[in-house]
């Protein structure tokens, strides 16, 4: 999963399949302003807690955007051009996450998308009715501002239908995380994780496990 080679970064001039760079021109109190932004889809994610063994079910994957924006030692020859040698460890782009995905299927509710993602990425078959909504936040408000809705669901061992790991070419490791270990990750700068990971864990400790 972290065997990453031949990385290059180049400009995405007119947008791609998943991300479109845009410029927003507007007036505020009659003063002309602009903002540079990207259009992206909204998304869902799901805190999964296996009550049979009191473990969180997490996913770990290599995130190219985390890698290029976060790894030390990358030299940018232009603001959007870099050649990244093999000495830059791919491990710096491997995240801790709860499973989730973008909402790019018209006609499916957020809960239905969440149920699909949980099955594809972790192998657990959950029902939409058993999802508890934690809330919706706006991500990357300086550049994107898309909505992400976060759910919580409890599972048992016998709800597992397969190993998960994603579909098509996805390479996703399913990793269980103990409650004490998870608590120690809150506020730990060395943990590479998105906001909803920390939000989801904090919600759990506030609402489900106050020990
Ligand atoms: N920018 C991109 N470039 C190239 N291929 C891409 C891509 N985005 C998605 N894909 C492709 O689409 C597949 C499915 O993506 P997902 O729906 O699982 O979203 P992902 O979890 O990556 O992130 C989404 O869901 C998580 C969980 O909510 C959010 O944190 C995150 O911001 C949101 O993009 C990926 O495996 C990849 O092949």
Estimated radius of gyration: 19 Å
CATH class: Alpha Beta
The span between the termini is 35 Å
Structural class: alpha+beta
Bound molecules: adenosine-5'-diphosphate-glucose
User: Sheet with the most strands?
Assistant: 7 strands, mixed
Q: What is the H-and-E element order?
A: EEEEEHEEEEHEEEHH
The amount of helix comes to 10-25%
Low-confidence stretches: none
* Coarse shape: globular
Number of domains: 1
Number of strands: 12
CATH superfamily descriptor: Nucleoside Triphosphate Pyrophosphohydrolase
CATH fold-type name: Nucleoside Triphosphate Pyrophosphohydrolase
Summed up, the helix count is 4
CATH architecture: Alpha-Beta Complex
Strand proportion, as a percent range, falls in 35-45%
Account of the protein in words:
This protein is of the alpha+beta class. The chain has a single domain (7-207), classed as Nucleoside Triphosphate Pyrophosphohydrolase (Alpha-Beta Complex), CATH 3.90.79. Helix content is 19%, strand content 35%. The protein has 4 helices and 12 strands; from the N terminus they run βββββαββββαβββαα. The strands form 3 sheets. Strands 4, 5, 8, 9, 10, 11 and 12 form a 7-stranded mixed β-sheet that branches. A 3-stranded antiparallel β-sheet has the order 1-7-6, with no helix packed on it. A hairpin with an 8-residue loop joins strand 10 and strand 11 (147-155). The longest helix has 13 residues, at 110-122. Bound molecules: adenosine-5'-diphosphate-glucose. Adenosine-5'-diphosphate-glucose binds at residues 18-19, 43-45, 100-102, 148, 170, 194.
């Amino acid at each position: 999963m972290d065997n990453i080679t031949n990385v290059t970064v180049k400009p995405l001039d007119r947008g791609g399949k998943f991300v479109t760079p845009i410029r927003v021109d507007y007036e505020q109190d009659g003063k002309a302003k602009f903002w540079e932004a990207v259009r992206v889809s909204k998304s869902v994610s799901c805190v999964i807690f296996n009550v049979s063994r009191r473990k969180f079910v997490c996913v770990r994957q290599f995130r190219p955007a985390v890698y290029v924006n976060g790894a030390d030692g990358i030299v940018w020859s232009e603001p959007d051009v870099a050649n990244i040698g093999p000495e830059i460890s791919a491990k710096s782009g491997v995240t801790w996450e709860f499973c989730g995905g973008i909402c790019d299927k018209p006609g499916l509710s957020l809960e239905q998308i969440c149920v699909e993602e949980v099955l594809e990425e972790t192998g657990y078959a959950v029902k939409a009715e058993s999802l508890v909504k934690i809330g919706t936040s706006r991500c990357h408000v300086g550049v994107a501002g898309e909505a992400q809705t976060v759910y919580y669901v409890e599972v048992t061992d016998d709800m597992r239908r397969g190993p998960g790991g994603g579909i098509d070419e996805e390479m996703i490791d399913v990793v269980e995380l103990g409650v004490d270990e998870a608590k120690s990750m809150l506020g730990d700068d060395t943990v590479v994780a998105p906001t909803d990971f920390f939000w989801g864990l904090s919600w759990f400790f506030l609402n489900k496990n106050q020990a």
